[in-house]
Structure to design on (511 residues):
């Protein structure tokens, strides 16, 4: 079943085309990575999926419903985490998770906040101000916030970008477990190719706003004749629009 | 309407106000300093003014000051509740949450009501202790003015949010400037008869003019001037509708042109 179905999605900013007629699906239980060089249109795509940016044309359907007409209902089943949108520095992690549980309509918000603090090893930091936490701790908290409503569609924009390798590995494992438990779907962006290879069922490469490849990691390697995803990334970044041989 | 969404926003703001000394100062400090200033000025004027005019004179100026402070606070608290989300880089999280714009506004209204009641109770008590001004003797007369003042403050708060959404965090100065801009034209401390005829006509469109003119009549004549209350209410309804239309338009522009994400980067 398709959780997310994007059809001919386009975003123009005056004469600049940030996203150019992209179409893809994310199915239940699937983790799809959205990759591409800087300026490829990943963040614009994610912002359109969160209805922060209106598409110039095209359609976004979540669970078969058009996001444009069912915004609140669909956003209550989704969540996201991004390094540019951390939780308010002047709350404590416990307060932040409680506030967002309420904003996502979770009735047992106190219990949910405590459960997530436990789950993400944040209990010791629960009473400190978020602004006093390290960037890595804030990022972990941001990912914890993305689970307040047990989302069925999760958008993760570089969730481990500011973490050291052991913490990143732990966080990845935790995210994967929670997603598998809830049979949720994930759209994941990252510049860490090892991470992408570890977590992804499928990879979508974007370049200059267009999808230039959409396949499993194994098939992509075969198609591009490379053993390493990073090499494929570099090839695509260098020659953005040309189809692989 | 989801009650939890509204309570979530209320809870978030109350934590901030309760914990932050500068915010508590914004709530109680400014008004204390200003009350001292206006109080001393009024005491000096009391010495200059002829004896019989003094009692009305004091109550008119200090009551006007108290109600203007209430208006200023209601607009500011509303604008700052939203700006707080911008300053703490939380605005993307907020707009990506399943919260309707009306729920967001209601959450801010609840914060505004809580602050207004606290500040009003505080400043009227202080005015009684320092200057023996008992504004509560006005009784029910103050209710229509109290409500209209809060509502107009919120309408301007909604406009402030729209301007911040459109022009970014640098527009935050407007949260403090808008009431100041209206002060000379709202007949707060003087009757509208002091205005030139053209200005009397133009200022008719301001609800604040009717509120303060009406309040003066209520104080000096001991009756509610219903015509002023009616005009203030009608104009308030118009301003609230226009403010919401403006905010929806600004949000539409922000979503079309990508301004929302700019709010965390500017």
């Amino acid at each position: 079943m398709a959780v997310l179905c994007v059809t001919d999605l386009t975003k123009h900013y005056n004469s600049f085309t940030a996203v150019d007629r992209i179409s893809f699906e994310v199915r239940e239980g699937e983790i799809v990575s959205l990759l591409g060089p800087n300026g490829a249109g990943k963040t614009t795509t994610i912002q359109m999926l969160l209805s922060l940016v209106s598409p110039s044309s095209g359609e976004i359907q979540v669970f078969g419903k058009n996001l444009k007409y069912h915004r609140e209902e669909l956003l209550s089943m989704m969540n996201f985490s991004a390094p540019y949108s951390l939780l308010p520095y002047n709350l404590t992690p416990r307060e932040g998770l409680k506030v967002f549980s309420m904003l996502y309509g979770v009735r047992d918000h106190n219990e949910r906040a405590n459960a997530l603090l436990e789950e993400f090893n944040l209990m010791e930091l629960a009473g400190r101000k978020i602004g006093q936490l390290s960037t890595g701790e804030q990022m972990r908290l941001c990912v914890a916030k993305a689970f307040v409503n047990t989302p069925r569609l999760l958008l993760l924009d570089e969730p481990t970008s500011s973490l050291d390798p052991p913490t990143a590995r732990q966080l990845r494992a935790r995210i994967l477990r929670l997603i598998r438990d809830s049979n949720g779907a994930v759209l994941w962006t990252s510049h860490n190719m090892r991470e992408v290879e570890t977590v992804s069922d499928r990879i979508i490469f974007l370049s200059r706003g267009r999808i230039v490849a959409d396949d499993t990691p194994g098939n992509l390697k075969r198609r591009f004749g490379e053993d390493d995803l990073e090499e494929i990334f570099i090839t695509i970044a260098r020659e953005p629009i040309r189809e692989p041989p | 309407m989801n009650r939890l969404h509204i309570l979530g926003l209320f809870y978030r703001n109350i934590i901030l106000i309760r914990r932050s000394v500068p915010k508590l100062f914004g709530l109680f400090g400014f008004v204390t300093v200003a009350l001292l200033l206006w109080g001393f000025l009024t005491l000096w004027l009391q010495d200059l003014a002829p004896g019989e005019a003094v009692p009305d004179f004091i109550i008119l100026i200090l009551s006007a000051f108290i109600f203007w402070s209430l208006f200023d606070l209601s607009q500011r608290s509303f604008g700052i509740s939203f700006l707080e989300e911008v300053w703490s880089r939380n605005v993307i999280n907020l707009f990506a949450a399943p919260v309707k714009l009306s729920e967001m506004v209601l959450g801010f209204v609840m914060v505004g009501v809580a602050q207004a009641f606290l500040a009003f109770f505080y400043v009227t008590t202080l005015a009684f202790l320092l200057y023996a001004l008992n504004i509560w003797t006005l009784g029910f007369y103050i209710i229509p003015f109290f409500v209209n003042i809060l509502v107009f403050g919120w309408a301007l708060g909604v406009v402030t949010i729209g301007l911040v959404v459109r022009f970014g965090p640098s527009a935050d100065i407007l949260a403090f400037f808008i009431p100041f801009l209206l002060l000379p034209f709202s007949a707060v401390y003087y009757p509208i008869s002091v205005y030139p005829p053209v200005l009397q006509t133009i200022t008719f469109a301001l609800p604040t003019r009717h509120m303060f003119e009406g309040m003066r009549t209520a104080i000096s004549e001991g009756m509610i001037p219903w015509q002023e209350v009616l005009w203030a209410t009608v104009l308030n309804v118009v301003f609230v509708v226009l403010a919401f239309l403006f905010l929806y338009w600004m949000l539409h522009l922000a979503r079309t042109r990508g301004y929302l994400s700019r709010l965390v980067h500017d």
